[in-house]
Predict the structure.
Amino acid sequence: MGFDAPLSPPHLIAQKAQLVAVLERLCEALELTPTQFELAKQRHEAVGEWLAASPDPRLRTLSIYLQGSTALGTTVKPLGRNEHDVDLVGHIADGGGVPPAILKKLIGDRLRQNGHYRSLLEEMPRCWRLNYASEFHQDITPSVPNPLCSNGGELVPDKTLREWMPSNPKGYRRLFEQRAALQPRMRLAKGIGFRGDAATDIEPYPAAGGFKSTLRRAVQIGKRHRDVYFDTIDPGLAPISVILTTLLARSYEYCVTHFVYDNELDLLYDIVRHMPDSIESQVIQGRRLWFIWNETTNGENFAEKWNNDPRRAEAFFGWHQRALRDLEVLAAAEGLDQLSKGLRGAFGQAPANKAMDALINEMSDARRNGRLGVSPGVGLSIGSPRATGVRSNTFFGAP
């Protein structure tokens, strides 16, 4: 929404703020709990200590650290199973010159020497997986320093284990966190109070129950919607998570530095809408090629698979249009039945039900205790002494 766009009516801002609260609860239902995160942390530290204590000198400089969604705070529980994915890097500080297949074998052999890890171990094409049933699995990918990267990049095995390829998990995380720390600019609204029978000044942002981190929630929402969308089409064509994360992070930076918004839902929609803007495309020898470069190192194209299978690019753009339509449907929902139906279709039944149940219970409890109202500078709030009370329904018509 540009600087000169008309301000949305207060009641519409309030309804969108409540939808944001529902989406926040939906994301909470999908991510690692604090307890699970702490347990994953303890376990990855333990496996790192075991590997570094190897008598093989090539492993003595190994360190283990988180990468991917767990490191970024954007975890989403996979469809159809309880286990979360926890991605780790096993970095060998002086591993230069060791072929990737040899380094991977060294890590696997050391893990097998531990009776506990041996029973959990599964070999994957480029990494080793430790399966903790009904909790999460940890993928350990070996890496070595990349002497050609001035940004602290690393080298990881290609899928055949024949060559090293550039990557930079730590640099990627730093850039993501810098973008996530950018604060959106929100306009203040003045108008008729939500009760409809009294005039009051309102400032609908930040609304109670808003996003804890808009960028991180946008990534979680995008990944979950992708999983549900492709589940009935072809999961093999789904864009990988690093593509969604990269495009959403770039789009977030663009939106918050160029525009002012009335509410977080409008911002979320714009973030998704501008996702394709930073995708590069060229026609070379009659073929359209796609490029989504890793900005933190040279030579890593996250869209490499698109160039081997054009259906992947088509699938991304098809999903993108569906995601925009589903967000529009949610924003236009009237009544809890429509909202719940839209959430289930876009994100799956279980998290949608948890989000709706949590919101209804919280609002009902606050209403019964006279703690639900509209506060200047807060918007929809619970328990504020300055709040103007609201009637006994939510903006979606909950009883």
